Amino acid sequence: MLLILAQAASIPYILDNESYYIQTIKWLNNYGFVEGLANLHLFLGQQSGWHITQSAFSFSFLYNEFNDLSAFCLLLGITYSVFRLQDYLTTKDSNQLIFGLLPLFLVLLFQFISAPSPDLPIYILTFFLFYIFLEHYNKMTIGVFNLLTTFVLFMLYIKNTNIALIILPLLLFIKHFKDFVPKLFRISSIAFLVLALFLLKNIIITGTPVFPMTTSLIYSFDHVVPEKIVSMYYEELKTYGFYITAEEYKSMNAYQLFVRWLSMPKLNGLFNKISIILLVVCPFLILRMKRLRNYGILYLIMVIHLMILLVTSPQYRFHLNFVLFFSLFCLAIAFHEKIKIIYFGLIASGLVTLLVLIVPLDFNAFSSNKFLLKNSTFNIENIIIPHPKTKLMTEYETHTLGNLTYHSPIKNEFFWASGDGPLPCVNKVQLDYYEYWLHLIPQMQTADLKDGFYAKDISKP
């Protein structure tokens, strides 16, 4: 718990925090859902359910630096893991050991908790979801089914890249069709409400029911994000996962892209290789344990999830929840009843995490991103006053573009950078790029920020 508190009070490590996490929550705190906000900064169109939750619990009217809901989520996950390990020591049930070994990845998970990353809750909730599924697979009730479905709905609201998880409640529904059909009103109502909120949120912020979306609708809102911007984003999203240019991407076939993905350097390549190893090894271990039905379903979901990512955005952090779970699945089999090794591994993990927390280290062996080469360390002064929720310690200058007056960081760290600047905040370099290459500029609907934004095509008279 003390380590988690210390990390939460330290410098935020994740780069996305500086591009849109802070700004998303700031807009939510001050104005709620703003029409056409994605026209100001495309990433603000994501509006993850986790950021909405962080906004609800940020209490900005009391203190402006609360930004640590992910740290609380990890604390819940580790606490849950401790109870599962205690159950394993009593029952010697390997299911309990899988979840009891979660602290082995503490040093990795710590890098996500000093900012409200939507990835961290997905990792933790995946373990909750899978544990409940495995424990109740052979004695499924409508109450457990509703709980599992609620978890999946919340996870999709946090990050829709986890769409493959919807397979879990669907398969359970098919298996227990006769028993569950008369009792589905409550969970169906929740599912419909979540879907309606998801679509409505996207329509308000981006002008389309799903973000990002290039397909034209029957009715087009005047605040819809232009197709040119969304198409450019799609191109960058596909190529970013392979660290190649758009020209290289178009010239490579599926096999070449797979080889490129598998042979990527540093942390990306490491987790990609681990994913393939797990795909090969886990079926044999599942058959050995004679638990084909329950673990086989989770394995199937992992395969489908990875296939979806390979054709959209194959970044390792998007499938890390499955990598963590099935890695611990393998370790639980390898270290079953080897209590001394288990204790040694958990203690070693805690010591390594403490080392990374207090000692500045060079992460060049793990990342090529210049902003991620140094770990986020804890300083003594953070005991009293936590570090600000941004690591971009820069001043902001005011610019005017048409009827839009906005704030831009003076020190331009990267293209999407905005940090903790005053609203509305967007990098001038980004707007200049859109204006020059796409002939589009964001404009205010009225003189009031709460009324939103639209994209003006300056190539038209």
UniProtKB/TrEMBL annotation:
It holds the Pfam family DUF8201. Keywords: Membrane, Transmembrane, Transmembrane helix. The keyword Membrane applies. It comes from the Bacteria. InterPro entries: DUF8201 (IPR058514), LIC_10190-like (IPR058065). Residues 2-324 form the DUF8201 domain. The keyword Phosphoprotein does not apply. The chain crosses the membrane at residues 69-85, 97-114, 120-137, 144-172, 184-204, 270-289, 295-311, 318-335, 341-361. This is Membrane protein. It comes from Flavobacterium orientale.
